[in-house]
Automatic annotation (TrEMBL):
It comes from Aquimarina algicola. The keyword Transcription applies. The keyword Phosphoprotein does not apply. This is AraC family transcriptional regulator. Residues 35-148 form the HTH araC/xylS-type domain. GO terms for molecular function: DNA-binding transcription factor activity; sequence-specific DNA binding. Pfam families: HTH_18. Keywords: DNA-binding, Transcription, Transcription regulation.
Length: 160
């Protein structure tokens, strides 16, 4: 009987812990930010994007939050809500969009770089993480995309 009572008490303790952690999780999801704080962070993110600081390979949520004079939770929450993606996905998308925009330029340095060189220049830690992020966004690998751009440029040159 004692053993059964111990199991029952353990079950009640576990339920209480689960309820406590569930409540904390809900509280984190419901971080409320004033419009002023939200606008300040969004303006700072816009400036961050324009200055192309996303190509820094040492960039982290913490380092960006520090640079924007905010904290990790606020920054993460704003990126999740306003950019509708995680911090990592947000940075990857910025880097890939930057690469695509510059690859289309007539004398793009990226046309002569290998994948490792491109990944390094864009701030990715490895060429594999770049290729994976690129494939996830574009549904093709960067090497294939570069070939497609080269073929399009050559065919448009041949038509002149």
């Amino acid at each position: 009987m004692n053993n059964l009572l111990d199991k029952f008490e353990d079950s009640i303790d576990n339920l209480n812990k689960t309820e406590y952690f569930s409540q904390k999780s809900i509280e984190l999801k419901q971080i409320l930010l004033s419009d002023e704080v939200t606008q300040k962070i969004l303006i700072s993110l816009d400036k961050f994007e324009r200055n192309q600081k996303f190509c820094d390979s040492n960039l982290t949520l913490t380092s960006l939050a520090k640079e924007l004079n905010t904290n990790n939770k606020y920054l993460s929450k704003i990126i999740n809500l306003h950019k509708q993606k995680s911090f990592t996905q947000y940075i990857h998308d910025l880097r890939i969009n930057y690469f695509i925009d510059h690859l289309k330029e007539e004398k793009s340095k990226y046309r002569s770089y290998n994948i490792k060189g491109i990944a390094d220049d864009l701030g990715f830690k490895t060429s594999r993480s770049f290729s994976t992020a690129f494939h996830k966004k574009m549904n093709r690998y960067p090497s294939d995309y570069i070939k497609e751009i080269k073929i399009k440029k050559e065919s448009s040159f041949d038509q002149i």
